[in-house]
TrEMBL record:
Localization: Cell membrane
Gene Ontology molecular function: any one: prostaglandin E receptor activity
Family of this protein: Belongs to the G-protein coupled receptor 1 family.
TM regions (residue ranges): 15-35, 47-70, 90-112, 132-153, 182-210, 231-254, 274-292
Pfam families in alphabetical order: 7tm_1 (PF00001)
Protein name: Prostaglandin E receptor 2b (subtype EP2)
Database matches in Gene3D superfamilies: Rhodopsin 7-helix transmembrane proteins (1.20.1070.10)
């Protein structure tokens, strides 16, 4: 069945889309509320600006895309059939492409921010501020919008996918311009994801080195805790995003290097995974919120601290006993 021009939904239930929509909206709102509460207790930072932008982008994705799918199921029409010239399909594809690019770009900037704050603190304090974060977010949005309007100018195309409630870039384009466009999209995702992973690994190595240097002095545990609070959610979200985007990148490269035979089931699985990251991101921040991390950090360090205290107590007791015996011998 050719789903490109299908106007009526052949089958399917809106329950999955409704659950995804509810989970995305509720999760992002809860995460934003918790972030605002934390911001009022502490001074706002560049990291908080970037996290807020990430959550707002995910919330925008849930609000702008999911209601369209629910409306399609309610009318029994596909995205192409909901408008005369497939405007709804183009709108849906534009949003999916924009949100995937902007979310990944923000994650990459967050990873770079963490690396600079730990690896190059002097440069970070001197040159980076919240204003840089606002400018960076604006530039990311602008660049993503410019890229996503290219299909309206003849580079690439937004097409409908099975079962008629999904629209995205044509991953099996036969024309050279379309292949270059979708190839650039996949390559950009691959490069930015690799940069994010490298930055996170570098931050992790720096934290391990800091921990080893400071364990012997029993100091700076507070700063270590704060860095772990920032790194753990970022690393988790990066893993989630890789799992959600890598299948789509692989599908694009397979279509570019192989035949142009359409595989609707594989394309649909890749698109569904792509939409999951905006739902999972806020729940990562909710579960790995700083208060919970502090509790876990204290519990992990309590056995070590108690062991150190017992060791100090035994040493002091042995020293006092030795001094007492020595004084008796002298007498």
């Amino acid at each position: 069945m050719d789903f490109l021009f299908l106007t009526f939904i052949p089958s399917g239930q809106p329950i999955t889309s409704a659950v995804m929509f509810s989970a995305g909206v509720v999760g992002n709102i809860m995460a934003l509320v918790l972030l605002e509460v934390r911001r009022r207790r502490t001074s706002p930072s560049l990291y908080h600006v970037l996290v807020t932008a990430l959550l707002m982008t995910d919330l925008l994705g849930s609000v702008s895309v999911s209601p369209v799918v629910l409306s399609a199921y309610a009318q029994g029409k596909t995205l192409v059939g909901m408008s005369a010239n497939a405007e709804v399909c183009s709108y849906f594809g534009f949003n999916m492409t924009f949100l995937s690019l902007s979310t990944l770009a923000i994650l990459c900037v967050m990873a770079l921010e963490r690396y600079l704050s730990i690896g190059h603190p002097y440069f970070y304090e001197r040159h980076l501020s919240k204003r840089c974060g606002y400018i960076t977010i604006a530039l990311i949005y602008l660049a993503c919008v410019i890229f996503c309007i290219a299909p309206f100018l003849g580079f690439g195309e937004y097409v409908q996918y099975c079962p008629g409630t999904w629209c995205f870039l044509d991953m099996s384009h036969a024309e050279v311009k379309g292949q270059v466009y979708i190839g650039f999209y996949a390559s950009f995702i691959l490069i930015v994801t690799s940069t994010t992973v490298v930055c996170n690994i570098a931050v992790l190595l720096l934290l391990v080195m800091m921990y080893r240097r400071r364990v012997s002095a029993h100091s700076a545990s507070r700063s270590m805790t704060e860095e772990v609070e920032h790194l753990l959610p970022l690393a988790t979200i990066t893993v989630v995003f890789i799992c959600c985007t890598l299948p789509l990148v692989l599908r694009v490269y397979v279509n570019l290097t192989g035949s142009h035979e359409e595989r609707h089931a594989a394309d649909l699985r890749a698109l569904r995974l792509l939409s999951f990251h905006s739902i999972l991101n806020p729940w990562v921040f909710i579960i790995l919120r700083p208060s919970l991390l502090k509790i876990l950090w204290r519990k992990l360090h309590k056995p070590q601290e108690s062991t150190l205290m017992r060791g100090k107590t035994l040493n002091s007791a042995q020293n006092s006993t030795g001094c007492h015996l020595q004084s008796n011998t002298t007498i």
